[in-house]
Amino acid sequence: MEPISDHLRENLDVIFVGFNPSIRSSETGHHYANPNNRFWKILFEAGITPRKYDSSEDYQLLDLGYGMTNIVARPTKAADEITKEEYQQGKLELRSKIEKFSPKIVCFVGKGVYQQYSGNKDIPWGKQEEPVVAGTVDFVAPSSSGLVRMKMDEVVGIYKELPLLIDHIIFK
């Protein structure tokens, strides 16, 4: 299985960070390609994107000011297959990407992703008090996996905070 390409550039409003690519994403070469993943629906329903994008259009989010990467590049069936060493390496690489590209906000798609990145265990949803990389805002949102047991309305409600946070940062 091949890793998939990041979609990153300097000064993005948000970089979305997932655990790692699914097998389906590796096969297609696109982020959040598993049909059970609700990422694209969540972004649309939360008002982050003007329409529901397809995973094959993932690179087009750059035009909206959004980038995409993962804490671990190796595709797996499930996140529990990721090794401690892969997380350690991924954490260093992710920090380097954030420092290089300087997004306004880094949105972690799942508490577990942020736990691995920050080393913190007790994490609230939404904006974190202290970012790992100075000059950015760390934002923790629920995983978009179909395995998440939260109601869709709750998940979308948390993601709806992102556009408000972007506006606050841009217009302050």
Automatic annotation (TrEMBL):
One Pfam assignment: UDG
Keyword entries, A-Z: DNA damage, DNA repair, Hydrolase
SUPFAM superfamilies assigned: Uracil-DNA glycosylase-like
Domain Uracil-DNA glycosylase-like, residue spans: 8-152
Superkingdom of the organism of origin: Bacteria
CDD domains linked to this entry: UDG-F2_TDG_MUG
GO BP annotations listed: base-excision repair, AP site formation
GO molecular function, one term: pyrimidine-specific mismatch base pair DNA N-glycosylase activity
InterPro entries for the chain: MUG/TDG, Uracil-DNA_glycosylase-like, Uracil-DNA_glycosylase-like_sf
Protein known as: GT/U mismatch-specific uracil/thymine DNA-glycosylase
Lineage, uppermost ranks: Bacteria, Bacillati, Bacillota, Bacilli, Bacillales
